[in-house]
Amino acid sequence: MCGLPAPLASAQAALISMLLETMRKASASDDPLKELGDRVRQARARRGMTRKQLARDSGVSERYLAQIESGKGNISVLVLRQLAKALNVSVDVLIFEGPEPPVELVHTVEFLRRLPLDDLALARQLLLHQFGGVDPAARHRRIALIGLRGAGKSTLGAALAERLDMPFLELDRLIEQESGLTLSLIFDFRGQSGFRQLELQCLEDVIQRHPRFVIATGGSLVSEPATFERLLSSCFTVWLRASPEEHMQRVIAQGDMRPMSNNRDAMSDLKRILAEREVLYSKADIQFNTAGRTFEESLEILIQALRDSPVR
Length: 312
What we know:
By secondary structure, the chain is of the alpha/beta class. Helix content is 60%, strand content 7%. The chain folds into 2 domains: 27-98, lambda repressor-like DNA-binding domains (434 Repressor (Amino-terminal Domain)), CATH 1.10.260; 135-308, 3-Layer(aba) Sandwich (Rossmann fold). Helix 1 runs antiparallel to helix 7 and helix 12 packs parallel to helix 13. The protein is elongated and about 70 Å long. The two termini are 13 Å apart. Mean pLDDT is 83; it is low at 1-10.
């Protein structure tokens, strides 16, 4: 264990999400209702429960339960929660896509759920060290900037890359090049899910093709567990942060009036987004506050912080 990274604070959600995402990587079923019915029936059989017993414990009628188990019942969220509670399983066990995960994976997830926060953080690092296949020195040569719009990811990132003699990449631009569409059109034609698939695909391509780089990521990338976990494990991440007011002022100064357009609650929305993402952004290797600093000051301090940060 000598030389392994110190535990990261608040790592539980990220690690559990990473393992649950592994469960879901198998292809989606063509008949999700039948798959759900099979899950309910399997869980009931393993517990030695008759359909009558499950109906009694869940408050779901036997007739409706028979329809659910046969894949013909269009189940509601409330009924799903009732069944999960009666079976003493979490809802995600009943609804994940693809074939049933190996027992070893299920037991590993349950074991990790019981660990205290500090131990869980160390467990994640041990898993990455043993099975991640990432050289810490190589990871240090891939610098990823995360944070809200207006934090300086593009401007600081480009200057940082030039000073470090590395290529500078913007993930959103790579997504546009890959798809042949602007971001707004990607969302229009392919939706949130389609965009997220492209985002992960382009990140994987960058990691495979470039041994060293500085990359600016989209502000919402951290909300996707699989993509963010890939970024954290393969790149040295820096959270560029500022006050909500500075974020807004910088975006508007760039000529982008969309945050304020027909939205009187733009500032409160921004503060809410930052509050929701803060626990995710804080997973970065280092945090750097650009508030109240000139561009030149921010660049010099950031370069020094990167040089002072040990290879982990």
